[in-house]
Amino acid sequence: MQSERSVQKFHVVFRPNQKGLKFYVDRNQTKHVFDLLIRRLTEKGPPYHSAHVPQANQFLPKNLEKGSREHAIFLFMLCLWMRGGVESDTAASLLKEMYEKKPKVFLPENYRLIEGESTVKNSELNKKQIRKISKTLTEFNLGQRVEENGSGWVYNMRKLDRFWQGDPRELMNDRPDFDMLTKRIKGKTRSKEGLFINEDNPNGFMYFREKMVAMIAYFLMDSKLVPMFYTPVPVDFHVLRLLTLTGIFRVEGMSIEEAVGVDFYTAHTQRLAREITEWYCRKFHISPIALCDSLWLLSREFCRDNPGNSGYVMDDLRKKTIRDKRNDIPGSSFLFDELSKDKKNPVISKDESSDGYLNFGFYPPDDISGRKRYRGLRWNGDIWDSPGRVKRFNRSCGQCPVNDHCHYNISSGAYYTSGKLLPERLRQKPPAHQMDFFGHISFASSQKVKVDQTVRFAEIHLKPEGL
């Protein structure tokens, strides 16, 4: 009898030609969905009752003084690992260990160049500092993107020390609007050859774009290191997936059903996400910290657990090795989900087949390729044959406050391999007799759940005066 894997047919539902598509935001839907999320967060209901954020107290070093300059620096450097490819809680835990054992590497004044020295000597010092911090990062298992993060560490520490009193709080103590904050933090910092540039300009920090600008504001405001002010939420895959799933993002001239296969990960949708999240916070005096938590944690905890969003990601270079060991490692497989992308090292499969792919202009998997290739959503008609998958649905969608507003299945696989956010099919749900309607709109108010006392809950409603 053949296993499910041996007969699985793969396809990636992707519209290759998106020329002329125009995205927009449905504000009425935005208000309705965000209100439901904020209500659930206010009630401390699932998933918020047990979900942690990476800047929470349990991820802070024991030898770090809360509310200090060092606290702000720790969070500022943590942002380097918030760009994707590593779990945020894991990165925070590893950086915590590094600070506890080597706190001096977190002092910006330790990265100064030597005044009066030649450019050549300072260039050598620069390389030495990058090698040293890269070695330290690797020592504490923070080697992911270490070549980038080592350079970013030195560049950003040096600029903080030279222009901002060695203190990230100085970037936003005056409550700037987001455009001004972005001008201060985002900027060109490297030449095509990888050399540091714009070192004499106080503005511009390495690897900080709009998402990281909003992230450091979120971190510092939540930790009460700077005054509260209105910003967008940090827009990442989790936020964009939720805005797409719930019909907040729409395509002009297309119904929900017709937008299947459209790639919603564009510069325009990211800008729309920033605009609509800041609009909601300003309009209804909601803390951007609370809105960020309500969006990001819901997608991370619930959408990721929905079996309908599971996708196949294949690493051809590891495929044979893991296959050979499958008998020795029960349950092992060469198929993975939630993996990082690396477009510099593409892998093209030599055994592609067109069997099972859709036949109306959608691309087969070779077009969606990176170091690991995305092969499409798992399961189709047989998804609810497994009691385990029904249970996963009930503990995720079954408890979700926006269950009735969710339209698609979207895997993280296409994003983490190729940077695409693809609603590949309308959301599949178990038959009614198998469903637990805990999250149905009729039961939108949270039932009693045990709240984890270590979870920090952000202030939700803000007073309009002074903001």
Explain what you see.
The structure is a single chain. The protein is mainly α and 467 residues long. The protein has two domains: 1-52 and 230-467, no CATH class; 57-222. The chain has 14 helices and seven strands. The protein has helices at 4-7, 27-42, 69-78, 88-101, 119-139, 146-163, 178-185, 210-222, 237-245, 267-284, 288-303, 316-325, 387-396, 413-418; strands spanning 23-25, 249-251, 311-314, 335-336, 373-377, 408-409, 425-426. The strands form three sheets. A three-stranded antiparallel beta sheet has the order 4-3-5. Strands 1-2 form a two-stranded antiparallel sheet. Strands 6-7 form a two-stranded antiparallel sheet. The radius of gyration is 23 Å and the shape is globular. Residues 1-8, 325-370 and 439-444 have low confidence and may be disordered.
Can you summarize this structure?
The chain has 467 residues and is mainly α. It is 37% helix and 4% strand.
List the helices and strands and how they pair.
Elements: H1 4-7, E1 23-25, H2 27-42, H3 69-78, H4 88-101, H5 119-139, H6 146-163, H7 178-185, H8 210-222, H9 237-245, E2 249-251, H10 267-284, H11 288-303, E3 311-314, H12 316-325, E4 335-336, E5 373-377, H13 387-396, E6 408-409, H14 413-418, E7 425-426
Antiparallel strand pairs: 1-2, 3-4, 3-5, 6-7
Helix pairs in contact: 2-11, 5-6, 9-11
Write out key terms for the chains shown.
mainly alpha; 2 domains; three-stranded antiparallel sheet; 14 helices; globular; disordered N terminus
